[in-house]
Amino acid sequence: MRMSGPESFLIADRVFRGTERPSLCQTHTIHHGHIIDPRTGDQVDEVLLSVFKAPRTYTREDLIEFSGHGGIVPGGMILEALICSGARLAEPGEFTKRAFVSGRIDLLQAEAVGELIRARTDACARAALRQLNGRCSQQIEECRIKLIQVIAFIEVTLDFSEEGIHEMEPATFVDQLHPLQEMLDQLIKSSEKTRVLRDGLRVALLGKPNVGKSSLLNLLISRDRAIVHPESGTTRDTIEESANIGGVPVTFVDTAGIRLTSDLVEQQGVERSRRELEQADIPVVVFDASQLPDEDDRRLVSLLSRREQLFILNKSDLNTYNAASYSELTIGGRCVKTSATIGTGLEELLKEIIKIAQYDPGRFESGLVINARQGELLNQAKGCLDRGINVIVEGLGAEIAAIDLRECVRTLDVLVGKDIGDAVLDHVFSRFCIGK
Ligand code: GDP
Prior knowledge:
This protein has helices at 8-15, 72-83, 94-101, 107-118, 122-132, 135-159, 170-199, 213-221, 264-279, 295-303, 346-357, 372-393, 398-416, 422-430, and strands spanning 2-4, 16-18, 29-36, 43-52, 63-67, 201-206, 239-245, 248-254, 282-288, 310-314, 334-337.
């Protein structure tokens, strides 16, 4: 349990009994003792107390951490003891928000804490950590400083033009601004590349009942969650399972088959399949290629028309298997031959999914996790910079370009949280959990 703020030591003195009073302890030390309910004097738990005095703390405020035995009841009793001694419950992300407000970290780093906690794979966690360590913030700051220097130069030449300070040549301006353009471009590209790392991919397995969707899902996630049944229409609900594929959290969704049906329960499942089709990043259509394609198969393919198509021709172990009979139906799409019974074709399937998602696990090693807010602001900043450069190239004058460059600086300020309203802050931190 963590407590931060100017009264932390006062409150800790009221509830902690050990060899020393917390307020007298040296900073960055750990002490053994007990938490006492101040109302009754009863012992609540045996704890270790970690003492952090401002300013070298997570929040830059006085901060105390209690390590108890855990468990909901003792944990709740410690909380109660603290609250009736003057503390209050933290809001979601409040500790990180205080670290931001006190200036220890910028908003990009604060958001990286949230990404780190939410990370579903180690690759995502590493990217969040790079951001928390200030990689992105440093680049933005370099860009800001350079822009401010250019703007200052423009202003000087305007103010002192009669005193022999001449305007920069357009080519010199562009030389100075071009690297900044590239830097912003790189960050935007990095955000596009790592979107799947943060949000993961949703792969929906679609197809008629009994073609082998559940069997394939079981193989993909190497567990037996979906019910495999030789009777048609057994998977009536969608089943989701996540797997870590090359550092990307991939959620596979097994859907009830899309086909005309009179069974009401199954109809609802069919409706969900349609929704899944809309929501999935990658819809994969599974065929039983031991049988000839029929109307249901054709209808399903027609629903896919606008998307990149991936088809699985399953049951390759059977004698009647005939992939060629599906060639017309799958024309223009990628096809993978599998046998869920023998377990062949899975590697190829994963490779195709990786290709469609256009992600290469290796390139995440330098990526950052840029969220939607940051991505939008980076794009805006890049837009301002592009406009400023164009104005100069077209010879419309540096003082006009300066308007765009100033706007670019303002946008970068919002990005790192220098100039930001309470509503945006509340939104950013509301996505955190309590205690972070
Ligand atoms: P779903 O309705 O599409 O989810 O299909 P299931 O995974 O429940 O499979 C239906 C039936 O087909 C089951 O009896 C499976 O054992 C069988 N099956 C699935 N894949 C294969 C395969 O590749 N080869 C063979 N021979 N049978 C399969």
